[in-house]
Structures
1.
Amino acid sequence: MTLVMGILNVTPDSFSDGGLYAEVDAAIARGVQLAHDGADLVDVGGESTRPGAERVPVEEEIRRVVPVIRALTQAGVATSIDTMNAATARAAVEAGASIVNDVSGGLADDAMAGVVADLACDYIAMHWRAHSTEMDGRDTYEDVVAEVGRELDARVDALVAAGVGEDRIVLDPGLGFSKVTDTNWPLLANLDAWSRGRRVLVGASRKRFLGAAIARPGVDAADPGVREAATTAVTALSAQAGAWGVRVHDARAAVDAVRVVSAWENAARPEGWQA
Ligand code: PMM
């Protein structure tokens, strides 16, 4: 079944929940709540990646995330670390995180591939072209599915060359990262084409391109909270398409969607069945 990764941003400035969980105790409580809601994994991040966000010094990022990961691990909650920094990845895995989730796919920090090889943990490589302050200017594609596929293949080659086990790598299309509204949908509609059979994580939760799809009179699609039902629809379709995982704010809704897909699929008639 598709795994549900609950989002826990320990940052003062993330786009939909920034500031809410900046206090460590509140972050821990939120992580426990996500697990209680059914999240298989809580994805802890200490640096916002919303368009325009400024970088956070690595020491500050470590200071934000490590106590949270340590406490969640003690509480029996599985975690991943959302970071572009090798030093943070190492500190987080040493504190108990089991997966490194790198939105830059190893491009932001040359040391990342070697550290992940050394840690021998699973690694999520997201499609990424530039840091948040520049990414909206790097969003031109002739064929987004082919180009994202090629750029991710190059990341996989570099990671494997650095010693990361190929079966450790999960790919992510990087929805909203150097993608304008219309370039996100072909990536979702063609998961197999660009991922070439590898495990796929989909991170669509509350993003702007969903707002554009649901916008109509009476719907304030600029409000990320209004995009929740659209997010759940993407979760169901991703599960049906065989995604390895989804990264979401509302774990309960996502688990419900994944279970509905599973019940639906289990009830399908065997191939060749005829009335
Ligand atoms: N999106 C955000 C942050 N981290 N990680 C992965 N693997 N995939 C994503 O799509 C992704 C991510 C930005 O969203 P947030 O501010 O809600 O965390």
2.
Amino acid sequence: MWTKHPPNCMSERESKPRGPYDELRAELRETDLFASIGAVLSWDQETMLPDRGTGLRAEQLALLSQVVHERRTSERFGALLAESEADESLRDDELARANLREIRRSYDQAIKLPSSLVREIAETTTLSIHAWRGAREKSDFSAFAPWLEKVVGLDRAKAECLATEDAPDLYDALLDQYEPGADTAELVAVFTDLRKRLAPLIHDVTGAARQRSDRVHRIEVPIEAQKAFNAKVAARVGFDFEAGRLDTSTHPFCQGVGPGDTRLTTRYREDGFFDALSSTLHETGHGLYEQGLPKDRYLGEPLGDPVSLGIHESQSRLWENLVGRSREFWKWALPEAQREFSPALDDVALEEVYGAMNLVQPNLIRVDSDEATYNLHIMLRFDLERAMLSGDLAVADLPAAWNDRIKTDLGLDVPDDRRGCLQDVHWSMGSIGYFPTYTLGNLYAAQLWLRIQSDLPDLPDSIAAGDFTPLLAWLRREIHVHGRRYTAPELCERATGAPLSADAFMNSLEGKLRPLYAA
Ligand code: ZN
């Protein structure tokens, strides 16, 4: 027979009075159980949910968001937080102080949002995602426009609640939800530096006399065989399949449900083996971070949570780009793949794969873009979403503004909105302020990589031998284990010895691409 709480354990618990900080932690843990139910429902919505189940799912998620929000903003919770902050016995407990600093931060933001607004956002965005999906399929912007109007309006209402007299900028208020402490002016400065070096590099490389072959991107490999191989690589780099899954979805993602449950998805095409593996490595990077966070000890507490989306994305980009597009990785992975898929890849050489994994070719689609042009996609979205939020750009004018920018920045003509402003899910989710974290992730990843290379001089050899344990151990120690103990800029300084800049990213990209495209 199995009982949850053996009687002796219960009495022991009851006999020991708990302070406000313990009660606060217990409250956070319980609230997180509700939030994790929402995470399972969201995963299901992306992978399994029948079309007609959308209405019910919208109501379920809306109710859960409201419950979570009300628990996080209750009077009792506020009182426990204040008592914990005043608790002298915690004054020298550095972990508790960091935890309380972040709990306070989240609480002060949450109480600014009326629970009716939180509920309305959850319900509207679930329906809006569904509408976006249909509109995107038919490339019919007019079917999505009314939803986008609503969602931008809700984002604006939310930003107005969150903005303060000291920090009145509406976009900053939204950005802060994804990248705590970041602000628009700082991003504009980093992005301007980045563009200054990126634009000439892209120009030189795309105009170079020597171009790399994309033949390998047309080789067909049966999807079932790819699935087995992708799972094998995810496990090899360290993803724990007893505490996670890898499934298929149209848009790959990673959902951290809780300790012991991290869910990844990827996507396959017969002629897309190399793309699928990139996307699997990307999501696995997110998954390794989720599995490395100390959630067992700190469920629902900041100490068990990811720092920011930029740091989360740095983990995925590091595995996708810095590992997965390196010569060393393919020294190990190509013979493995050749054995698995024989004879499909028999005549493929290491240099051919390396060149094809590092092709630079402006693409209409963000998620299919190379490491260099990708960031131009982000800057474009960053500018357009700020303009929509401020009202400078009317939703109805979005397709024209989008198409103009794609022409100016990438030199491409957008043939339809499906491959234009309807390609991403984010705006339908009300996630204005999310996009810049992708580029921050690229920059953080490159800066971490520089430090990793000096800390682990044998890394190229171990990657070429298919041994990823030293790299994962470094990430666990320097990034994962800390949860939100440090802010993103602090974590960056601690791990790399310098504040974030575009230099490491540009140096690494130029160092790789210029020789690849040299005559
Ligand atoms: Zn990602």
3.
Amino acid sequence: MSISESSPPVTPLYGRMAVIGLGLIGGSLAMAARHRGLATTVVGFDRRDSEMHQGLALGVIDEAATSAASAVANADLVVIAVPVQATDAVLASIRDSLPENATLTDVGSVKGSFITSVVQIWGEVGPRVIPGHPIAGSEKSGVASSNPELFAAHKVILTPGLNTDPGALARLTEFWRGCGSEVLSMSVSHHDQVLAATSHLPHLIAFSLVDTLAGEKDNQDIFRYAAGGFRDFTRIAASDPVMWRDIFLANKTAVLASLDHFTRDLAHLREAIDGDDGAALQQVFTRAKAARDHFSKILSGQAYLNTMTTQQTRFRASPGGTVQGDIRVPGDKSISHRSIMLGALAEGITEVEGFLEGEDSLATVQAFRDMGVTIEGPDQGYVRIHGVGLHGLKPPRGPLYLGNSGTAMRLFAGLLAAQPFDSELTGDASLSRRPMERVAAPLRTMGAVIESQEGGCPPLRIQGGQALKGIDYLLPVASAQVKSCLLLAGLYAQGETVITEPAPTRDHTERMLNGFGFPVTREGAKARLSGGGKLTGGAIDVPADISSAAFFLVAASITPGADLWLRHVGVNPTRVGVISILKLMGADITLHNQREVGGEPVADLHVRSAPLTGITIPEDQVPLAIDEFPVLFIAAANASGDTLLTGAEELRVKESDRIQVMADGLATLGVTHTVTADGIRITGGGYGGGTVNSHGDHRIAMAFAVAALRATGEITIEDCANVATSFPDFIALATQVGFQLKEESV
Ligand code: S3P
């Protein structure tokens, strides 16, 4: 949890700050407090007189004390900055002079041992004892290395207890924030485990490796020829030996656990080398590389929030352009979400190829990481999920933020309704307006406890620990998201869950569950499964997304002379409405090399320019082309005659009101149309340019980029950042085939 991140205070937070131990950390903290005006007076004590004198001379401290006891008398902040093993003696020496209202903190790398020392001296941990640990340092030591900026932009972990005085905690938090740090909070034991793995073990390995090599016969040569990697890797072996000796002894249990784990893994690598097992080596190195590439995201536990597009962008699409080439669009969004969900719930490892690295599916990845699932990657579409089984999810630390993704929110609602823990699902402004009662209501019938906000909108608060029972449910709307949500809840429910759909919707959940060994039967409009059982991890090849291919199918159809191949596109019969509708309009699209990959039909699509004619879109095609209408409206604007869409009121509750937002854009371009409650009539013909607003809807932004191929003027499209939710490389692929399209920051 990040406690605070605002700007530094102007008035001193403490009157008298005592720093016991003027090494690198103590000296730097004293200096930071002085430079930043965080304490009126900073008094220092160090058992070495020379350090104290130097501290005074360098302006690290205001006053040098003659003893630790005299340093802390009258202080309101006391910082213990001595090696861990010296803590006992220092605390004993200040026991009788520590003012009752003073805050006592430390900066050591091990928090459990500090607490043990405090209990030994005072018999309890008082409300103003707040252990701390700045994650900052350097291989330098001594007061002469003091650097008041050492903590700026670094993390500081505080480990308050249940009885900690909130006022004292708030003030200490402000103090560190005043040093430029980001303050985090966690329990003592969690801190010690995390640091054993991320800091203590690497130091041990660095010390050990340098020592081993220094003892080799030809050590001169080894060090002389050691390249940058060795130098980088072993930099920390120049750290203070006494400090590190104490850290290992103080954090013995956690360090030994990490060390044993590492030793086992190292032994496996030894075996692999000895046995010429290249595959085993490659597997470990690939896994490590993927983890390292995503290191900061994994560590922060905030990948989605940190990487999500906050920078607003606009597209400028010049009129004209060509559509030529041979491309593969990114992976299918629906299948990508499901691959992570089922992979996480499966037993064993699931390896995914072709995963869509868009913000929506990354939100799903992050949500599972937040629930304790290890997910490596994504790395160029490769993801490796360490499944935890149906009952292995852990309670998330906070609300699960799902960005723009309706699929994620609705599917998670079903899954989380069945978990033993509470959860909360939140999203961005668009998602926060979308209807969730369509999932909450049937889930409640199954026994779930779910609270939505006004109008049935997110956030959703789900109370865990409910025993669900199966449901026999006729979907009021043809929605694969609602169907999938209920099937996921049904995995945990007692008895049978039967979902009947009024019209066929995408069936990726059913196919993938069967692929994971969990039987789902289909009889006509009914999907049926029984709760219990398990999922078994495996391999998933995500085909290219037909919803992303759709932009290029229309682009090539309307652009004279166009000739384009789209490779490895998913052509599941529940998704091919866009091809059927375009063909009815006269498009020249052919399917080649049709095959089945991991239970999903796939083909290479060849599309060439063809004259389009307006049609009445058959209503049974609407759910099969539900995401493709924005770009189909552009096809209609380029067809001769009228195209009529009916039975598509669902479009009004997608990422935007897609009927109205498209109509507004078409009006700007001068395309004749009439909006109805459940559709639109569009009269084809030429159109001009202008500025249209996508209202943050990715598919509307891309649809108007396609429109520019036949416009007579430039089309500027506002609010395009969300294209990254489903098609992060859209601009690059579109320009590759001949669009004249640029993105600019706003
Ligand atoms: C999706 C189902 C569709 C679709 C959405 C993805 C899915 O929504 O619009 O983009 O992955 O299940 P509905 O099923 O609610 O129409």
